[in-house]
C-alpha cells in the first residue's frame, strides 16, 4: 500500500482512508443523536436505525462503503442544529426515513431519471444548493436534464470510466472507491462539484453538443483528487499554520484559503498524470480537452500547478505529511507532464 503522502493512485490506500472517514461519520452521527435527545427531545428512531444499519454493513466487510446520500443527510442535520431552527431540524431528521446507507457499487444517473428516489434527490439537491449558493441567490442550482441529453451524458460518462481503467487500473480502482454516486444535472452554476459534506457524491453538468467523454474524464480525475485530499485531511493534519489570507487560485476567479489552493495542487497534478498516461498510451495521444470552466486559465497545466505550489510554499507552514504530499504532487506533475499544448485544443468558455 502506498503511503498517504504518495501522490500516485492506490486502491488499497483509498479503501483504508475511506474506511476511516466512514467510521468517523458514524461517531459524529451517534454524537448528534445523543445531543438531539438531550437538548430537544426529538424523535430520532430513523436516525438510530440508519446508524445501526450502517455499522452492521461496515462490520460485514472491510471494503464496504457508506453512501454519499448518508453523508449528505447527516450534513443537512448538522447544519440545521447549528441554525437552531426547530422546523429545519425536524425536516432534516425526516430525511433518514428509509434512507439507503449502503454503497454497493457506483451509482450513475441523471437527475429525474428515476434511478434515485425522490427523497435521495431532494437530499442531494438541498446539500449542493447550500454548498454552491450559500447566499441563496438562485432559485435552484441543479435541475433535471432533457431525456436525450441525459442519455448522451451518461453514455459518455461510462466511456470516460472505461478509459480510466484502460490507462491505469490503480487510478480506476481508487476512483471507484472514492466515488459512490454521480448525478448528472442541468445547471448554470456548476460544471462538476463535490464536497466533504457529501463525501462520495459528485455532481456533473450535462454535456453540451461539442463535448464528449473527455470532459467527464477530466471531471472524474478532478473530483476524485479532491476526495483523496478530503480523506487524508480527515485523519492527518496537512497545514500547521498559515497567514490567514486569501490567495489567488489557478482554478477559481475568487481568492481562496490556503486549504483550497492545496486542493488545487492535488487536482492539477492528477489531471497532468492522466493526460500524460493518455499521451503515452498512443491510442489517446491526440486527446483534446473539452472540459469547460467558469474561470478560463490559458496557462499550461504545469504552470498552473507551479502557481499553486509556490503560493502554498510562501504562505503556509505545512505538517510533515502535508509537505511530503505537496512535494509528491510536484514530482507527479513533473514526471507526467508532456507538451501541454497537445491537450488544449479549444477556447475555454467564458460562461461555461
- Order of adjacent strands in the largest pleated sheet: 3-4-6-5
Structural class: alpha/beta
The number of strands is 10
Please estimate the helix content.
55-70%
Order of helices and strands: HHEHHEEHHHEEEHEEEHHEH
- Low-pLDDT stretches are 340-352
What does the largest sheet look like? Answer: 4 strands, mixed
Q: Beta-strand level of the residues, as a percent range?
A: 5-15%
Overall pLDDT metric = 90
Cα shape: globular
- Radius of gyration from CA coordinates: 20 Å
Number of helices: 11
N-to-C CA distance: 39 Å
Describe the overall structure.
The protein contains 11 helices and 10 strands. It has 352 residues and is an alpha/beta fold. It has a domain at 237-352. It has a 4-stranded mixed beta sheet with strand order 3-4-6-5, with helices on one face. The protein has a two-stranded antiparallel ribbon with strand order 1-2. Strand 8 (247-249) and strand 9 form a beta hairpin. It starts with 10 loop residues before the first helix and ends in a 16-residue tail after the last helix. Residues 340-352 have low confidence and may be disordered.
